[in-house]
């Protein structure tokens, strides 16, 4: 595996974990409603 592939996989895993945690806490609804604000 290339180093860049490993980095991308790690970032995707972390993003997925954050989304799951946000889902459990009910926080992802706000971020989904304003994606440009939270990801600018």
Report on the architecture of this protein.
It is a single chain. The protein is mostly helical. It is built from 3 helices and no strands. The longest helix has 23 residues, at 3-25. It has helices at residues 3-25, 28-33, 35-38. The model has no long low-confidence stretch (mean pLDDT 75). 82% of the residues lie in helices and 0% in strands.
Query: In whole angstroms, how far apart are the ends?
Result: 30 Å
Q: How many distinct beta strands?
A: 0
Count of alpha and pi helical runs: 3
Rounded to the nearest angstrom, the radius of gyration is: 13 Å
Q: Which band does the percent of strand residues land in?
A: under 5%
Overall body shape: elongated
Could you name the ranges where pLDDT drops below 50 across 5 or more consecutive residues?
A: none
Element string (H = helix, E = strand): HHH
Q: Roughly what is the average pLDDT, rounded to an integer? A: 75
